Amino acid sequence: MTIKDIARESGYAVGTVSRVINHNPNVSDAARARILEVIEKYHFQPNANAKHLKQQANQGIAMIVKGTHNMLFASVLEKMQAECSAAGYSSMVFYIDENDNEVEQARCVCRERKPYGVIFLGSDRNHFGPDLADLGVPCLLMTNTAATAAIPNLSSVSVDDVAAAVRMVGHLLDNGHRRIAFIGGDLTSSQPSSARLSGCLSEFSRRGLSFDPAGQYIEARYTLVGGYHAMEQLLDNLPGLTAVFAFSDIMAIGAIRALRDRGLRVPEDVSVCGFDGIELADYLSPRLTTIRQPAERMAGCGVSILIRCIEEGCDAVHELVPYELLEGESIQRLPDPNKIH
Amino acid sequence: MTIKDIARESGYAVGTVSRVINHNPNVSDAARARILEVIEKYHFQPNANAKHLKQQANQGIAMIVKGTHNMLFASVLEKMQAECSAAGYSSMVFYIDENDNEVEQARCVCRERKPYGVIFLGSDRNHFGPDLADLGVPCLLMTNTAATAAIPNLSSVSVDDVAAAVRMVGHLLDNGHRRIAFIGGDLTSSQPSSARLSGCLSEFSRRGLSFDPAGQYIEARYTLVGGYHAMEQLLDNLPGLTAVFAFSDIMAIGAIRALRDRGLRVPEDVSVCGFDGIELADYLSPRLTTIRQPAERMAGCGVSILIRCIEEGCDAVHELVPYELLEGESIQRLPDPNKIH
DNA sequence: CTGAAAGCGCTTACAG
DNA sequence: CTGAAAGCGCTTACAG
């Protein structure tokens, strides 16, 4: 069933059928009514490939998401889709495995779907090189900054990961913690993890405290079980530790379970804090102290940047949105160490 | 840049270029080498719309997912994508809002992408009528049964929701609970909710106990906040209640938070159980007692059914996979009510 | 092994 | 307002 069949049956030419389908006003009411009737009768659906081939059309905005289990991404994504459609762009989500190459995927998508722009949720910094410009459309990296990558068509929206980590570490130190461990992602591939770790390091050194990345930082996947195993290792390696800063809420939840399975209470025996500020963090007991990344605001900001790049050809921008330290109940105030000494 | 350009530059005809691109063996090594060289030089990517138009080709298997926040769906999806690609099918995920019409979306996708088959994760029973057959490809509903819908091209894989609810209610009753409330989805649209509720009803009546759906069952969205508000309502309406059965783990987590915010302990004051058996359930404190839907097994089963329908034109089948009651720590054993009386 | 040509199902100037 | 026709970028018999 093609528009040719509709044309024959309705007694009009294919051009007229096409105009009816595309809501072109230059069609008589009689023709429109008749053609619509035939279309209805056969439940005719035009062939999108032909349409797009002809129009060289593209398909709105592509969103490439690494991993299906990331609750922060889910929130960001939901809002971005709403923002895109409010701005008159359709959006198309491509989920890929955490270990797949998101830039390769973007190449495929650009070839097949010709989007106006591409949004990345999650990234391996090793995949983002200057050849991203070959995609030929504005791109946006969400929740990681791409400022240092300096790729001409890649914008980014994120919190200031360094400052946020400084803030959280400061909070732990202010609460009397000194033996603190960290659980984060693979430092060679995860830009936010290394930014957060460097924030931690700098706050330690600013306060004249020592920090041993080899012993205090454990790399883990951003999953429950990743946080769980990392915590087990830390308990074996760092006896007497009083606080753990996990670089995602999900890892923090895993870590808390590991602590409890060793008979330790949170926060009485060990304090735990997370990063992301997912909705779930506020439903746990104890409520998780964490850094909130404002998903909705980031999404809105990102979409408007990308659309500006698309419509006005603006240069890439790297926007930092404000984070927030959400005080939960998972950090214990320890006796002031200065008073002890 | 089209194959015409490649043809001109390489000195061969477009047909030969096309053959190289499609790995047709009938090309001389010399031609292949030269053409590949030119393709490389320009990073040429063939236009997929033209290819698909010509081939009337389709794009593997479409997966339509309702809601981005469902952890059970995320697990099922991940496994299904792996299974599809292992079977040589590409897969394409379409996330839609929980309130959008998944069957409408499937129509769009079928028109635009011509998939071999469509998988639905999540469904509103009102959207599934006999006109689903118009899609012209085998469809599969995951985690909800479609046995009663009896649509010729719609298979389904699910647990036996009725039996699972009977089992969980029996477990609560066996533990001495009598004042039990239920939190589930909208009964007019959610097939599993009404199946589970009917299981609850039948177990109550089998044991000669009364059940008041109007008072004991609260409809909520399948979200944290949905569970939270439903629990608040129940506390207001059913004083003295000793147990709550939420029809999803996420709702159960919301309910637990609401209980604690009213100063009640779980399970000492009120027992809570969930449904789904998401990974998170086992990381909570107390660990959640729940019905495990075997995500991986369901995914594997569903994909193989769909592929059989696609390749061998089999009739739709409705498969039940075994559920499992996961005993956590969220149900309190009460004194035997028979001994009291 | 290769080329010339038809045709996939649409859209859109162009002419009337 | 409508029709006839060109053409989007590919694939694939067909002929050589």
Automatic annotation (TrEMBL), chains A, B:
CDD domains referenced in this protein's UniProt entry, alphabetically: HTH_LacI, PBP1_LacI_sugar_binding-like
Molecular function in Gene Ontology: DNA-binding transcription factor activity; transcription cis-regulatory region binding
UniProt keyword annotation of Chaperone present: no
Gene3D superfamilies linked: 3.40.50.2300, lambda repressor-like DNA-binding domains
Domain HTH lacI-type: 1-55
Superkingdom of origin: Bacteria
Keyword Transcription: yes
UniProt keywords, alphabetically: DNA-binding, Transcription, Transcription regulation
Pfam family for this entry, one: LacI
InterPro entries tied to this protein: HTH_LacI, LacI/GalR-like_sensor, Lambda_DNA-bd_dom_sf, Peripla_BP_I
UniProt-recorded name of the protein: Transcriptional regulator, LacI family
Organism of provenance: Subdoligranulum variabile DSM 15176
